Amino acid sequence: MKTAICWRDEARVHRLMWLSESRAGIYCGIFTKGIDIHQSYHVDGVRHTRIGKEHHQRHLDLPLASHAGTRQLSHHGLGSPLVDLAIWPSHESSRAFDSVEIINRSALIGVERLAIEIWLSDHDSLGNLDKHLDQRSRAVNFSRLIFTSTLKLGHFPSLWVSAVILAMTDPNEGDVAL
Fold first, then answer.
1. Which residues have CB under 8 Å from 84's CB, separation 6+?
2. Could you please report the per-residue DSSP string of 94-144?
3. Segments of the chain scoring below 70 in pLDDT
4. What pTM did the predictor assign?
5. CA gap 18, 4 in Å, rounded
6. What is the pLDDT of residue 76?
7. How far apart are CA 14 and CA 88, in angstroms?
8. pLDDT for 116-143, tens place per residue?
9. In 10 A of CB 34, how many CB atoms?
């Protein structure tokens, strides 16, 4: 599975983030300001963030096969993609993806900050994601859900990964890695 989540601005499609998996683990990335930022959750439980070529926040978590329940893997606060178009790569120039999901520009008008969250659920707990998002939205002051996509993992068939994009109401809300 290799999915790009993009937004359309009249003539161009810009890649906002991507999700992928291999036998080695699951990955999500944001490419902004010319810097590749991605998070990895490897099959043996090793998790880390890579910014450019440097690894950060390396720690040992549960092996992927041991995951049960629904939990948030990451949260990123970003400025509105409409403010500075130059920081978002064109999707047309990117590598091949199995699927592309597109958010229309109209969904981003008036949004000062975005929250991008990645969630992991096992099959039996998949229905709990809405409950977690509802609790999250009240705790962090989101104005609205812009986008959500839940994808079944092929290499880890009992697991699902969800990408959630929300509009933030507090323009001072910062980046948080969970």
1. none
2. SPP-SEEEEEEGGGGTT--EEEEEEEEEEGGGGGGHHHHHHHHHHHHTEEE
3. 31-34, 84-89, 93-95, 136-143, 169-178
4. 0.83
5. 4
6. 82
7. 6
8. 889 999 999 988 888 877 776 666 666 6
9. 9
- The maximal CA–CA distance of the chain, rounded, in angstroms, is 44
Q: Which residue has the tokens 């920081």?
A: 87
Q: Kindly report the backbone phi and psi dihedral angles of residue 174, in degrees, each rounded to the nearest multiple of 5, phi listed first.
A: -100, 180
Pairing outcome for strands 54-60 and 99-104: unpaired
Q: Which two tokens stand for residue 81?
A: 């993609």
Per-residue model confidence as pLDDT tens digits over 38-52: 899 999 999 999 988
The answer to whether the Cα torsion of 118, 148, 52, 153 is positive or negative is positive
